[in-house]
Amino acid sequence: MQVVFMNTFDRIDGERTVVGAQVSICEHEGAWIVLWTEASEDADTWYEGASWEEMLASFRHGIAIKMGAGFMPIIDGMLEERKTQPGGIVTMLQCYGELNTNADLFEELREWRKKTASQLCKSAYLIATNRLLTMISAFKPHNANELAQIPGWGETKMKEYAEQVLEITSRHTRDTSFPLDWVTKSLDPKTYMQWSYKQKEQKYRNQMDRHQEKKQILQAIADGRTLTELQAELEMTRRNLIERIEQLETDGYNMDAIVLNELAEMPEEEKQSVLQAFDIVGDKYLKPVLQHVYGTEVPPDKPMDLLYDRLRFLRLSYRRDKMREAM
Containing domain of residue 23, as a range? Predict the structure, then answer.
């Protein structure tokens, strides 16, 4: 087994007791292996497999956990592709918001977001993320100038939602003030550092989950599973799953099997009408294609969700064929 990378860590416990550890990236017969060895304990295997991307995500996820627990490396810079400036005001505001969330106000804001998203037929996160709502609940802005100081609350949100949000937040008293420059001095450095590592840990955990999700999707498609079966297995919404399949196609994976499976019951004449519509109105937006093929009044026997699903799968075939023609 060949050691490709190694780093040493130290952590001070209790009465200045130094605990040492090592992390190693090794290669053996085409497989990557990530090992963590702490003091005299046996090595803990964080990853073993052929994927460089999965290995790197597992490596960084483990490093984030250990650094959050107090282990400091001899060589730093393992958690980022490029060095970033620590302690930015935005991340500090985010940290303070999560640590000082007003639970009652947060729930009121969530209910507002849920109602607004339903009325506008939008995803809730497009209205406001949980992180944005935690900061609003912690700092409790009472006017537009104060609301504008919350990171992530831009001009569009100000025009569309400021009045509604301020109507909610203004009912809550606060002990802090604006501007928010006091946050940088009020945060305990150790608490902020642990929070920062927790964010990195979650980031790389998400990357690991996404790699695992990709493997499941590719294996399921190879096994001839349907979209409905795959949706139940992954517990994803149908739309999110199709978006994931579209991304995999863009990344170069062959999605022919599931495309053919999902379009099997679509009449050939209808398929050709859609493909011709892509030539005429373009393939960037699906609504013009839908209207070109079916008119503004969609027949009641053709559910809208089903039509959009089929359009998305046909667009995959259309784009792939166009790419082949261009080669």
Answer: 2-73
